[in-house]
Amino acid sequence: PALASELGEQQQQVQQQMQVQQQKTAEAQQKVDSVSEQLRKVQTELDRAQGDYKSVQSKLSATEEQIKKNMVILAATEKKLAERSLILNNRIRDIYQNGQLSYLDVLLGSNDFSDFTTRAEILKRIINKDLELILKVKAERELVLQTKAELDRDRASILVLKQTIDEKKKIIESSKKERQRVLDAAVSERDASEQAYQELA
Q1: 42 to 47, 105, 183: CA distances (angstroms)
Q2: What b/e readout covers 128-143, taking b as 16+ CB neighbours within 10 angstroms?
Q3: Mean of pLDDT over the chain
Q4: d(Cα 180, Cα 186) in Å, to the nearest integer?
Q5: Do the Cβ atoms of 74 and 148 come closer than 8 Å?
Q6: Secondary structure E strands in 120-191
Q7: Helices 116-200 and 2-108: angle between axes, nearest 10 degrees
Q8: Are 154 and 64 spatial neighbours (Cβ–Cβ below 8 Å)?
Q9: Which of 58, 23, 41 is nearest to 197 (CA)?
Q10: Which of 63, 110, 133, 171 is spaced 20 to 30 A from 103 at the CA atom?
Q11: What is the pLDDT of residues 72-93, one digit of tens each?
């Protein structure tokens, strides 16, 4: 009878311990489910942030490509302006060096000065044409410089946005690691209590 009583007590203790392990397993499983859901949400956030980052990176690349093209156009416009200015400067220098008459002689290949007024008018028109072209090229250059300023502003704001998204992405990645760590611990806890239950059983 004493042995039976002792065995009964032992069985009761084992059953209590089994209940404790079952409770632990249930609690650990709840934690696993809860953290798994949190992890799924964090992953969705991370996917969205990575998508935003990719989109901003693509926008940045496109803007930088536009800046390169614009710089090529600017260089060509600067060259055109320098060439036009040189032509005008040379014409004006020739007029001052040779005097209007001899410049016109050279220009028109004529020694007859009776049509001086006409030829002076032609010279004036040529210089005006040069000036018109220079003003036109200057206007083109202004437009290119304006585009350059706009593109530089765009690039700067995209870089700020990229940095913001990058920081957000890092925070989410860190949160994901933390959630994963908690999940791994909960899974280990559940497995250990299940193992203990099986051993008691």
Answers
A1: 9, 85, 13
A2: eebeebbeebeebbee
A3: 87
A4: 10
A5: yes
A6: none
A7: 170
A8: no
A9: 23
A10: 133
A11: 999 999 999 999 889 888 877 7
User: Within 13 A of 164's CA, how many CA atoms are on the CB side?
Assistant: 8
At residue 158, what is the residue type? I
What is the three-class DSSP state of 94? Answer: helix
Please give the backbone phi and psi of residue 113, each rounded to the nearest 5 degrees, phi first: -95, 5
Vertex 166: Cα angle to 163 and 170 (nearest 5): 140
Say how many C-beta atoms besides its own lie within 10 A of residue 178's C-beta: 14
CA angle 167, 168, 171 (to 5 degrees): 90
The pair of structure tokens assigned to 149 is: 């300023």
Token pair of 178, please?
């933390």
110 token code pair = 């004529």
CA 164/CA 158 separation, integer angstroms: 10
Please state the pTM of the whole predicted model: 0.68
Structure tokens at 195: 């193992």
